[in-house]
Amino acid sequence: MTKSSRVRVPIWFVFFAFSVFVSSFNAVSAESVLTLDHSNFTDAVAKHSFIVVEFYAPWYRVGTVRVLPPEYEKAASELVNNDPPIILAKVDANEEANKGIAGEFNVRGYPTLKIIRNGGKDVQDYKGPRDADGIVSHLKKQVGPASAEITSAEDASNLISGNKIYIVGVFPDFSGEEYQNFTDAAEKMRADYDFAHTKDSKFLPRGDAVNGPIVRLFKPFDELSVDFQDFHVDALVKFVEEASVPTVTVFNKDPNNHPFVIKFFNSPNAKAMLFLNFSDEAADAFKSKLQEVAESFKGKGISFLIGDLEASQGAFQYFGLKEEQVPLIVIQENDGGKYLKPNVAPDTIASWVKDYKDGKVNPYRKSEPIPEVNNEPVKVVVADTFQEFVNSGKNGMRTFHAYNSVITICNIILLEFYAPWCGHCQKLAPILEEVAISFQGDENVVIAKIDATANDIPSGVFDVKGYPTLYFKSADGNIVQYEGDRTKEDLIQFIQKSGKTEENKTEESKTDETLVKDEL
Ligand SMILES: *[C@@H]1O[C@H](CO)[C@@H](O)[C@H](O)[C@H]1NC(C)=O
Ligand SMILES: *[C@@H]1O[C@H](CO)[C@@H](O)[C@H](O)[C@H]1NC(C)=O
Ligand SMILES: *[C@@H]1O[C@H](CO)[C@@H](O)[C@H](O)[C@H]1NC(C)=O
Ligand SMILES: *[C@@H]1O[C@H](CO)[C@@H](O)[C@H](O)[C@H]1NC(C)=O
User: What is the structure's pLDDT at 408?
Assistant: First the structure.
């Protein structure tokens, strides 16, 4: 994967994977990790041709689950004695003065580990194990040659285990352009995959005699091994990326599967996810059917995943799914479009996916139920009432006011996107209520809120990255994010100032815009 590739792994999977990895911790204390900051980072990177840097934020170390340090320090204490020494360092990326370094290295979350080689020329994400022993063996391999030589069947069976991707080049000689290109490709991808080379294909698992040069990729799924013979470096990289994606990605609590789940989410394809209880009698029938369907849709822009209900709580919450809908398929497109088929049977998977592909399935929208009564000062909006609400006035109807024959749609809306667990939102709630009460006499001003975790927000206009987010729609239909202070006074003033009422609109003489509306 290149440094610039966009990561699309959804947050529910990040938390899930993290909880699995955290459950494998033991506490240790040691102090072999080098502390770096903006003043000495560059020197340290220049001095060590191979250095691993953990970018962390201290607030992730308290209370929450992000507890890498003990394992990292234990690994560091072992690795300083390696020959050549392997240096493990850390940078507090939350420190204002260090933010430049974190930015330069593309750090987007904490903790992030980077392997930095050759004075900063080569940078790769650390993607190895998170426990001390795992870190040690992974990094030892990272400083050695990118590809290990296999000289016996025993070597091969030690290296090529049943649950990983392994790429082996078979060459008559370890020289020549093909060998060189293989080595270059291995160097490029070494942080993500394991490579080996051999002169004898018979050493390899399920080994038949082939004459090199040839590249054989072993994988723990589908056809188990694939051969490739184009030795252009780019072609090799592409082959490895493509051949290492399972036809159907399995999502359960087994951490061995998680790298494939990450690949699945990073794919540019639409993502079809079948969720069911893996302990269910029918699970095998679903698995083989989905495999069949996935094969028939290969190369058609859809990636497939099968997920165990037990591991999927986060996903269910994210999509607003319910257990009684299982087995279900949800398809998510990269632009946010979602499609749902609840209570699917093995035999209906293929036809439903085909209907989806043919544009015959209506999008699915996560929504809370429409409230039966909505008479608090702050109105409740849900996904199913969103469009209507934003386009309408207080009473759920589009209101028109005519003054001197000018017709204006004059409702002014302040809408809060909130999350139930968000402290700032809870603090804002009574303030919004007071604001709403102060405008209760003005039927054109509506203060409303929507639980953005339980309702899909139409993309495009509303950019909700944190909670609370406040949007304001003025009388002339402009929608802007409210960036001011979240105090009663500021909010009221803002609404009065930017939300011109129809009286002022007419007084200010008719603008072109109102004239256009007039004509419509
Ligand atoms: C880098 O500087 C910080 C503070 O300026 C210091 O705490 C740290 O020990 C230094 N690291 C090295 C490797 O010199
Ligand atoms: C090796 O890779 C380079 C760069 O991709 C390419 O130009 C060359 O043709 C390759 N050699 C072989 C034998 O494929
Ligand atoms: C899955 O099914 C098994 C066996 O029927 C049951 O014991 C288990 O509770 C189910 N798991 C979930 C998450 O519903
Ligand atoms: C109209 O604008 C004037 C000043 O431009 C302001 O004093 C007045 O309060 C506004 N009227 C309303 C109803 O907002």
Answer: 37
Overall average pLDDT of the 430-445 stretch: 90
Which has more confidence, 127 or 1? 127
pLDDT, tens digit, 9 for 90 and up, residues 184-239: 999 888 878 899 999 999 999 877 888 889 999 999 888 899 999 999 999 999 99
Q: Which fold does the domain 266-357 belong to in CATH?
A: Glutaredoxin (3.40.30)
Phi-psi map region of 429: left, alpha, beta (phi>0 left; psi -120 to 50 alpha): alpha
**Closest alpha carbon to 115 in 123, 105, 104:** 123
Q: Which amino acid is at 517?
A: K
For the domain with range 149-243, which CATH number is right: 3.20.20.70, 3.90.550.10, 3.60.110.10, 3.40.30.10?
3.40.30.10
3-state SS record for 286-326: HHHHHHHHHHHCCCCCEEEEEEEHHHCHHHHHHHCCCHHHC
Ligand 4 touching residue 501 (CB < 6 A): yes
Cβ distance 446 to 395 under 8 Å?
no
CA-nearest residue for atom 6, ligand 2, is 232
Options 1.10.150.120, 3.30.70.3040, 3.40.462.20, 3.40.30.10; CATH of 11-140? 3.40.30.10
Residue 34 CA: nearest ligand 1 atom is 13
- Ligand 3 pocket, CB under 6 A: 277, 279-280, 309-310
pLDDT of 425 over the 90 cut: yes
Residue 152, Cβ density class (10 Å: 0-12 exposed, 13-18 middle, ≥19 buried) = exposed
Q: Which of 72-86, 231-245, 468-482, 487-501 has the highest mean pLDDT?
A: 231-245
Distance (Å) of CA 307 to CA 242, 356, 419, 428: 21, 20, 26, 38
